[in-house]
Amino acid sequence: MRTIAVILKKGGSGKTTTAVNIATVLHQKGKRILLVDLDPQANATLCTGLDPTSLQYNINDLFKNINIKPADVILKTSFGLNIIPSHPDLALTEAGMKATQVGILNGLFEPIKDDYDYIIIDTPPSDSYLTVSALAYVKEVIIPVQAHFLALQGLTQVMISIDQVRKGLNPKLKILGILPTMVNQRTNISREVLDQLNTHYKDLLFPETIDYSVKHPESSLAGVPIVIYDPKHSGALSYTKLTESIL
Amino acid sequence: MRTIAVILKKGGSGKTTTAVNIATVLHQKGKRILLVDLDPQANATLCTGLDPTSLQYNINDLFKNINIKPADVILKTSFGLNIIPSHPDLALTEAGMKATQVGILNGLFEPIKDDYDYIIIDTPPSDSYLTVSALAYVKEVIIPVQAHFLALQGLTQVMISIDQVRKGLNPKLKILGILPTMVNQRTNISREVLDQLNTHYKDLLFPETIDYSVKHPESSLAGVPIVIYDPKHSGALSYTKLTESIL
Ligand SMILES: Nc1ncnc2c1ncn2[C@@H]1O[C@H](COP(=O)(O)OP(=O)(O)OP(=O)(O)O)[C@@H](O)[C@H]1O
Ligand SMILES: Nc1ncnc2c1ncn2[C@@H]1O[C@H](COP(=O)(O)OP(=O)(O)OP(=O)(O)O)[C@@H](O)[C@H]1O
Ligand SMILES: [Mg+2]
Ligand SMILES: [Mg+2]
């Protein structure tokens, strides 16, 4: 089973959009997929059409209640994707977590490790114990970087965090790739950021980039990933090609 | 002295851009301003042209070292704005904070409360004790909401947090206003979000909105707020009018 977290502390860089679309494309290709929403904002839950506040169970129950197993919490979206939904209450768990709990996902997902080909984890814009627990658990990470200066600076920070995790918690953690998002090839800022990424992270850059398009926020309002909302759209095609390159 | 925090847990909603521009416009109008960067990403520090990793002191020193006073940490930007810079190490302080420290900013800023007309605080995209300490300290908050569905959902969450703070830590906390950002009037999604804001939060909406423009990330790369980078730009004019409406 492959386990992939989508991370970057910089807010609004396309983590949720990337996690939801990659998970959906893998699902469309017949792989057994579980999308895990590890963000108290519950954006991956919202982007797949579910209402976080109306579900019986969510990931927070898995964290808090020893009797709750993954099978109790896993839901199917309207387009057949398996998801462990999130809830704002996860923020309370996050605030109360201790460093000793950082390995918690190993135990939680042990019962289902033979049921899936991929687990894709969406993480919050923070370096709290939630994100660290994802970094301690997964074998691979994808880093979406908005084509803006501040997200580029955020990349420097996450590389430091990944190095620290590799030195202790998870020596085999691999960077699957860096994905430029919200790119607008006609602007200087995008070209500048892509230049910097090419100079400093050439070997880690995915061949695909995701252009800026209003179809992405539209699809989140519709509660389906863009690869379902508008499959022929350039953003949907880019996420499809990206996913094919990681298979 | 007026104290204003710019908050929203949703990442990439324009918190830093709003905090930096409002602080700069107030400064240009002759007010005595202190901008406080309370985010370990140190984006407000970067957006005002400073390199967080090369400064002698930062807000983390203020938190950690009882002998360090605000005067030791306050810097002037190239355009004359006083700022308390941040540093990635603030994340370590954030992770170690206890609920008992939530009132910490009162004591930290006591020595300078007569030196300034406004303190503007940029907060991280999280509901950690850092953001809570800002909510416990300030008298007013500004909430920038990106004209996207997910940010709108985030607004529901922050209103709950504000209510909770008002019931205990800071009963007088006032919402100065909700600021729609990255608006593109030609798109359905922007109109939909503005409709929702008008329906549910009519009395809290600022008259101004900030349109989507690549000049904003360009100005962050240049290390100056858009009101200095391109003063006649519509984004700069909107931030100027907004600031005039809160004077
Ligand atoms: N390529 C794109 N072009 C335009 N908008 C996009 C694109 N990708 C994502 N978006 C939109 O931008 C906003 C931010 O994206 P998203 O929520 O996926 O980022 P995130 O990194 O998960 O944010 P957070 O840090 O809050 O978790 C969302 O409203 C999303 O719909
Ligand atoms: N009106 C706008 N139009 C286009 N881009 C903008 C606008 N306002 C801000 N930006 C850019 O969008 C990105 C996100 O904005 P900003 O960093 O201010 O948000 P934030 O809420 O502070 O993010 P975080 O949650 O990470 O703290 C930045 O690169 C910024 O330059
Ligand atoms: Mg997200
Ligand atoms: Mg910010």
Structure characterization notes:
Chain A is built from twelve helices and seven strands. In chain A, strands 3-4-2-5-1-6-7 form a seven-stranded mixed beta sheet, with helices on both faces. By secondary structure, the first copy, chain A, is an alpha/beta fold. The model of chain A has no long low-confidence stretch (mean pLDDT 97). The first copy, chain A, is globular, with a radius of gyration of 17 Å. In chain A, helix 1 packs across helix 12. Helix content of chain A is 43%, strand content 14%. The longest helix of chain A has 18 residues, at 149-166. The structure holds adenosine-5'-triphosphate (2 copies) and magnesium ion (2 copies). One adenosine-5'-triphosphate sits between chains A (11-17, 39, 41, 43, 124-125, 181-182, 210, 212-213, 216-217, 220, 235) and B (10-12, 125, 148, 150).
List of distinct ligands in this structure: adenosine-5'-triphosphate, magnesium ion
Q: What quaternary form is this?
A: homodimer
Calculate the terminal CA-CA distance of chain A, rounded to whole Å: 12 Å
Reported for the largest beta sheet of chain A, the result is: 7 strands, mixed
Determine the fraction of residues in helical runs of chain A and give it as a percent range: 40-55%
Briefly note the structural class of the backbone of chain A.
Answer: alpha/beta
CA gyration radius of chain A, whole angstroms: 17 Å
Order of helices and strands of chain A: EHEHHHEEHHEHEHEHHHH
Query: Using CB atoms under 8 Å apart, which protein chain pair has the greatest interface?
Result: A-B, 38 and 38 residues
The residue-averaged pLDDT of chain A reads 97
Number of helices of chain A: 12
- Portion of residues in beta strands of chain A equals 5-15%
Anisotropy-based shape of chain A: globular
Number of strands of chain A: 7
- Unreliable segments of chain A (pLDDT under 50, ≥5 consecutive)? none
Biggest sheet of chain A, strands in spatial order?
3-4-2-5-1-6-7
